[in-house]
Amino acid sequence: MSINKDLIEIDVGVGLSDSELISYFYHKTENKLVIKLQIWDASVVEICCDSPILFVDRGCGETSLFCQKTSDSDMLKRALETNYDKGIIPNNHPYKVYQILDLDDNPSIEIICKGIEIHRIR
User: Fold this and answer.
1) What's the average model confidence in pLDDT over 37-66?
2) Sign (positive/negative) of CA torsion 1, 46, 58, 110?
3) Which superkingdom heads the taxonomic lineage of this protein's source (predicted)?
């Protein structure tokens, strides 16, 4: 499958092709966003996003890939301007853009956060 040259596929340990979003929720005390996808064998992949500053759901149904966007975007710039005092963004900020792609390789979910952890729940 060919994806945008500005995206790097993230290995979640199993193929996400035809997986389905089952839930997402935010743990305020831990400052984590948790996204759960049910994969082809009925097990669940849990993506934990650390210190999220933006989450966009464009109506995720079936998914194909989980990726990191490697180029800057207007969405990232706006989120950073909102997050940093007086809109002064340090060059070494820790935030990255992650995307869950649909079956047509379009972003159905986008997250801007400091990092991710991935777990498979059987």
Assistant:
1) 90
2) negative
3) Bacteria
Look at residues 46, 54, 52 and name the one whose alpha carbon lies nearest to residue 30: 52
Query: How many Cα atoms sit within 13 Å of 57 on the Cβ side?
Result: 11
Judge contact between 42 and 107, C-beta under 8 A.
no
In angstroms, the CA 110 to CA 121 distance is 22
Q: Which of 4-8, 17-21, 29-33 has the highest mean pLDDT?
A: 29-33
pLDDT over 90 for what percent of the chain? 54
Q: Structurally, how many domains does the chain consist of?
A: 1
Per the prediction, the chain carries an average pLDDT of 89
Q: For residue 120, give the nearest of 12, 11, 10 by alpha carbon.
A: 12
Boundaries of domain holding 102:
7-121
Q: Given phi > 0 = left and psi -120 to 50 = alpha, else beta, which region is 104?
A: alpha
Let me know if residue 1 belongs to a domain: no
pTM, two decimal places? 0.89
Is 48 within the bounds of a domain?
yes
55 inside domain:
yes
Confidence of residue 1 (pLDDT cuts 50, 70, 90): very low
